[in-house]
Amino acid sequence: MGVEIVTVGTITKDSISSGKAHFSSFGGAPFFASLIFSGFGIKCGVVSKVGRDFKQSLFDRKFVDMCGMKFVDNTTEMNINETKEDTTAKLSKFTGSLALSLVPKSFMCAGCFLISPLAGEVSLRMISGIRSRSSGIIALDIQGFTRPRLRKGKSRVLSDAVKKRPKNLEKLLENVDVLKCNELEFNIISGNGTALQRARRLAKLGPKTIVITMGEKGVAVFSENRMRRFSPKKLRPAHTVGAGDKFFALFLSHFLRTGDAFLSASQATDSVQSLLAKNGDRYD
């Protein structure tokens, strides 16, 4: 049996400061998503560049296919500082851009591609290439297209303050079926009007399902020309680093099985709260 879903992006090695807690952990959307998919018994493929220091034993090989991973000298490193007001991430190392050639031909039969770049390592050309070669759903977390493009070996601070509307937004969204963004990113890319009006405008460009994460306020989901909000339980998570990545992976895990965006959002909201409430969410 081939992979059901492929996750594309950058695996990172994070040094995290959150309140009084300070620890190191592997992270990044492909890492968190692969753990979640394998936990659901969903076989997934990973397309990423990562250092030889990455602990492959963290992945269950029964469910995680690493044929699309390229092992290089160093893992992308991030220093993340989480406060009540904001979260900033300083990148000190970067493995560089990903290419379509990294995607094994066997992955093209997957039912879904979860594409979640960190900051420009996935190009529009790569996404268009996947779209032309695969009939699967394209699910995009747009965060990496709203940040300035990173250069290999360069240090840069990543925060919401530096995010801008992608120049190629219309062409990008032509290739997307499910779009994920946070509240700020949604405001940047959608223009004026009510949330529903703006979601409908984006849907005309391509994505018929839009997932908007809003932190403590929960999540808003647009599907079938309607929008619904889902509020989380009041819990005190150990930290919220990777919360959006984990939520989107949980959402897709349910969505691939049910095809119901609203039901999937409800189930993912409950599940991610349980994940975030756990202490010791560290993979080092």
Provide an overview of this structure.
The protein is an alpha/beta fold and 284 residues long. It has one domain (5-277): Ribokinase (UDP-N-acetylmuramoyl-L-alanine:D-glutamate ligase). 28% of the residues lie in helices and 29% in strands. It is built from eight helices and 14 strands. The protein has helices at 29-39, 124-133, 143-146, 169-173, 183-190, 195-203, 243-258, 261-277; strands at residues 5-9, 12-18, 21-27, 44-51, 64-72, 76-82, 87-93, 112-116, 137-141, 156-158, 178-182, 209-213, 219-223, 226-230. The strands form two sheets. The chain has a nine-stranded mixed sheet, sandwiched between helices. It has a five-stranded mixed sheet with strand order 3-2-6-7-10.
Q: How would you sum up this structure in a few lines?
A:
The protein is α/β, with parallel strands linked by helices. The chain has helices at residues 29-39, 124-133, 143-146, 169-173, 183-190, 195-203, 243-258, 261-277, and strands at 5-9, 12-18, 21-27, 44-51, 64-72, 76-82, 87-93, 112-116, 137-141, 156-158, 178-182, 209-213, 219-223, 226-230.
